Amino acid sequence: MRLRHIAGFLVFASLVAAQSREPKHPPDVVYVPTSQSVVDAMLKMADVKKADIVYDLGCGDGRIVVTAAKTYGAHGVGIDINPQRIDEANANAKQAGVTGLVKFLEDDLFTTDIHNATVVTLYLLPSLNLKLRPKLLADLKPGTRIVSHSFDMGDWQPEKQEEVDGATIYFWTIPAKK
Q: Residue 154: exposed, middle, or buried by beta-carbon count in 10 A (0-12, 13-18, 19+)?
């Protein structure tokens, strides 16, 4: 009888834990992973170095910051609203042996603190890039590099643009403050 109560409690506890792991609000985009070839090209275009802090806004399974840490020794921060993606990202960082270089935050990319970034990566939607643009320009230091997979920033012309495996990659640098 006692064993049945314990089993029932464990089922209840796991249901409560699963419910508390729902996103704070529905994600703004559907998760679509970036191919490794595009990840590599984005980090190369951003000229990532060991001294960089790479922020991936809408990080999904964490592959961009994990690759930045593993390949370049850079620190990385991944932001995603979906707790399932954060769990996957942490598992991927552990598997890659880079947990000391990266962290993943379950947060809203429009409100999270990004001022420490030296590189920001995006794979959102055109409307979200435009909505995020004022935050990037206000919060990031001049010289911070931004790389977007597939989507531009409206009338903010990219400094570089490259086609990789059917995807367009865009690059900008935060200008000096006026």
A: exposed
Strands (E), the chain: 53-57, 75-80, 102-106, 119-122, 145-149, 160-164, 167-173
pTM of the model: 0.85
CA-closest candidate to residue 86, choices 59, 66, 108, 63? 59
39 vs 62: CA distance, rounded Å:
11
Query: Hey, where are the domains in the chain?
Result: 25-173
Question: How many angstroms from the chain centroid is the CA of residue 154?
Answer: 21
Q: 116: alpha, beta or left, given left = phi > 0 and alpha = psi -120 to 50?
A: alpha
**The CATH classification of domain 25-173, taken from the options 3.30.360.10, 3.40.50.300, 3.40.50.850, 3.40.50.150:** 3.40.50.150
pLDDT digits (tens, 9 = 90+) for 6-60: 434 433 434 334 444 565 655 556 777 899 999 999 999 999 999 999 999 999 9
159 in Cβ contact with 45 (< 8 Å): no
Handedness of CA 42, 45, 46, 52 (dihedral sign): positive
Instruction: Give 61's DSSP letter.
Output: T
